Amino acid sequence: xxxxxEKHLTLREKILETIRDAIISGALKPxxxxxxxxxxxxxxxSRTPIREAFRQLESEGYLTVIPRKGAVVVSxxxxxxxxxxxxxxxLEGYAARRACENLSEKEIDKLQTINEKLRTLSDNGDIKxxxxxHNDFHxxxxxxxxxxxxxxxxxxxxxxxxxxxxASLSLPGxxxxxxEEHEKIIDAFRKRNAALSEKLVRKxxxxxxxxxxxxxxxSVTLKPEELSAARHLDL
Length: 235
What we know:
The protein is mostly helical. Helices cover 75% and strands 4% of the residues. The protein has eleven helices and three strands. α4 packs across α6 (127-144), α4 packs antiparallel against α10 and α5 (105-124) packs antiparallel against α6 (127-144). The protein starts with a helix and ends with a helix.
């Protein structure tokens, strides 16, 4: 039984990776339908694990599942980008203000350790692991806000727009900027400056949205290795 479960999960992960890869690479365009029969034939499986993968990808903001029509690739407009990062900046900024009051010195030291790891990953161009560790940094101070409803709101929001986060943080130079932004945030936490902590975290999110919109207009392009790493992320 356990082997069957593991096999099922492995197939599901392969389907998830295949579809994410196709969407991020542009092989599947916004508004394009993702065909169940083709995936079922390709993997030699029933449609059940495919539908499960579709639901997961819908929660991550890659697909929209339409009754009796199937799954289509989500299309994000500039308005979607602006609204997402505006809300993200407000919620995470408030979390930072609250966290400033609650973070222990040990937790702040952990933020510093995480950021040093991010710096190394940035220097090495290890984008795949950078994103995973980057998520740990934000998760730590958001939890420190000690507000379960706020944590749930932020988690649900960023989960639905995962594709935008990946695209923004994949842009050339963005990793290095992120590390420097984190240094300022950590310093504000150490000084227990709640207002500055909130301001810096909000600026961090707003900047992420701004560079993404610039990139979508063609002023920034991804290097092949950056695109390859972004395709296989599972934040």
